[in-house]
Amino acid sequence: MSAEFAGLTEKTAEQLRVLDQSLWHILLIIVGVLISYGLTADQSRQLLCAAQGSPSGETTNTAPLRLFSSLIIFNALIFFFELSEKTAKTHVELSQQDASNQVNFIASGLVLAAGAFRLWDVLCLQPQISKASAVQVCTADVFNFFRFHAKPKYRMIPR
What would the pLDDT profile of 103-152 be if each residue is shown by its tens digit? Predict the structure, then answer.
């Protein structure tokens, strides 16, 4: 036991270590979100400059920073998933606490899956989008075409 936890039980010292690690990973999430925020604000500025025809509207490659942001957030999500898995495997006296641990484990798994999809998007899909030609038709384009152009030829309710 380190001098920092002198006089504490092993269980309390372990809980403090977990809390310290949790704080660190929360900080990683905050940094990742702040990077994303900055990139989105820059994207907004670029769009506004381009719409106004301003020469300062040159686009910058944000892919490396988006990837970095996604990776540090994903790293933190893995930590919290593993923590919730460990907690879910620990039996406690209260059945409500057991149920809460299981719900948190499932929620952490879903959040981790969302983070994995985001990382996949940044790594695989977004680079393909930037390389795609303007003629490429995506699912959203097809959906929008039918939504706006396939209107009924007659009205059900007369005016």
Answer: 999 999 999 999 999 999 998 888 777 665 333 444 444 445 445 444 44
Q: 92, 62 in Cβ contact below 8 A?
A: no
Quote the pTM value.
Answer: 0.72
* Beta strand segments in 29-152, E: none
Distances in Å between the Cα of 5 and the Cα atoms of 1, 14, 24, 25 are: 7, 9, 18, 21
Contacts of residue 43, defined as CB under 8 A and 6 or more positions apart, other chains included, come to 62
Distance CA 24, CA 83 (A): 14
Between CA 28 and CA 17 the distance in angstroms is 17
The CA dihedral of 143, 121, 64, 53, to the nearest 10 degrees, is: 10
Distances (CA, A) of 120 to 18, 67, 84, 116, 127: 29, 10, 23, 6, 11
